[in-house]
Amino acid sequence: MMNQLRSIARHAPVLLRPRLLIASLIAIGLATTAVAATADDAAPPSVKPVATKTADAASASTLRFQTITGSGGVPLNVVTAGDPRKPPILLVHGIGQSYVSWENQLRPPVTDEFHVVAFDLRGHGNSGKPWGREHYTDFRHYAGDVQAVIDATGIDRPLLVGWSYGTLVVGDYLRAYGAGGLRGIELVGAYGGFTPPPPPAPAAAEMAARLARMRELQASGNLEDNIAAARDGVRFLTSREMPEAYWERAIQLSLMLPGYARRWMFDRPIANVDQIPKITVPLLVNVGGKDGSTPEAQGRELVDKVPGARLSLYPDSGHSPFAEEPERFNRELMEFARAVLR
Questions:
Q1: pLDDT of amino acid 59
Q2: Which CATH number is 256's domain given?
Q3: Residue 208 parent element (H or E)
């Protein structure tokens, strides 16, 4: 979707500049890839993973919370569920949301078999919201945060699952650390910058105008404008009509991400095509058939480039198949996890 927006920008009025359009749609978690990366194989910033408490074996349905120190000293809110002695799955959410997005994966039946770990990205939810562009533009911070969570929770070579912007964080991790510390990768709702630009989206000018207006409201100092933008933006998360409580919570989570963090999170290179050779562990790609940000053809091209990779299509779902079809998603997640974590 990121690159679709670049195509949109070429057909939209001059005032709808590509960066404005990109920031608008990314701010609701729908983009995949755009500009070429400029930094590769640089050492991650210093990370001191210090957990405030540890978790013993507990009920699979019990959520356990801890605060750890992420890259650059940013506090990260981490949640775990399931028996820590069981094989680990690490979940990374999308922009403007939180660990709460994975509510259907942080409970049985998934937690009956696996130790599931999730966290709020920097700037999101109950994690720290540092001021300073460098906290959001350096890929090494996102990679370092993931490594800090792995170290602090003691999980050994997890299955790393990324959704939307979280797929870019997967790419950041590969760029900084490679796949040696993982046993599998799952991409959901985006292609992590591992694909080239998709073709132009239909109704380009209409969407461009809507996104430009949404971006204007997000940047406003008027909280009523921010709320209006959040209410419009969360409707891109699914193609299915969800319970009202789902929408209200998604809006609340969206408003917990400061405007400055939204801007800076995409003022950075996000293309990871050059990292495909580093995907040396099993790869599963989930595609929502009604998600405009993940053209099926591009997903199939990606899995064709990675030995043994496969694609799972959800024809009737949009950007969030784990929330739209949780029973099927959990079944396939568990099947994949059994195969790679054995």
A1: 62
A2: 3.40.50.1820
A3: helix 204-219
